[in-house]
Amino acid sequence: MNVALEQVSKLQNLDLRILELKREVAQLPKQIAEIEKQLEAHAKKLDTEKGVLTANQRERRQKELDIQTAQQKISKLKDQMLLAKNNEQYRAFQHEIDYAQNEISSAETRILELMEESEPLEKNVKAADVALAAERKQVEAQKAQAKEQTTADEKEISERAGEMRKLLAEMPAPLKQTCERIRKKHNSPLVMAEVVDGRCTVCRIALRPQHYQDLKVRDDIQYCESCGRIMFYKPPTQVVMS
Question: What CATH number is attached to the domain comprising 73?
């Protein structure tokens, strides 16, 4: 490979590396946004589960208060029964006592149901709390890592850009203009194309036999007649038998 082709190859490699780094820098915030979105979803789910547990506990407390109220009512009714003047009043008090006892029985049944429901809820909330704390810690670590990676990438981009500027300053103006023209034409850093088995490896078009033969033996810059990229050819490696 002659000096000009070596320069173009170095330029292309630098350009490709800068493009790769810029894509990585652009992708990192998207990755962080995605994991933060997942974290937010898990936090909302935990809030919902906590809300269900809180409602369960609130209802249990209310039922316990209802039982206390009913018990106090029964106690008063029993005192009033002692003062009943006739059987009709007595039966009326007994009816109210029976009603209050039914309320107590219903409340006690509901409390048992709520206790059964709350047991798995409490376990789930505790486990989710621990998992969410661990996830938050992991997300913070990933964010810190992404920040470090971005800083490193931006530093390397600056370094590679400096190398490109130095290389472009050393390149002959016509060659530099040719590279820029090809780059703009394809909107790609790929300004070179290796030829393998008589075919351009970028556009996949076969070369004319004479063009392929010229590429093998001539040392000047030649272009793909299809895509216009600068072509290069690597002779097969000779294996030395011992």
Answer: 1.10.287.1490
Rounded distance between C-alpha atoms, residue 117 and residue 75, angstroms: 32
How is residue 172 annotated by DSSP?
-
Q: Which domain holds residue 45?
A: 17-171
| Local structure of 232: helix, strand or coil | strand
Tell me: pLDDT of 21 over 70.
yes
| Residue 76: inside a domain | yes
**Helical pair 3-81 and 173-186, crossing angle rounded to 10 deg:** 40
Give the whole-angstrom CA distance, residue 139 versus residue 133.
10
Q: In what order do the strands lie in the sheet with 192-196?
A: 199-200, 192-196, 230-232, 222-223
Distance, in Å, from the CA atom of 14 to the CA atom of 157, rounded to the nearest integer, reads 9
What is the widest separation between alpha-carbon atoms in the chain? 130
Q: Which pLDDT value is given to residue 151?
A: 96
pTM for this one? 0.71
Task: Give the DSSP letter of residue 206.
Answer: B
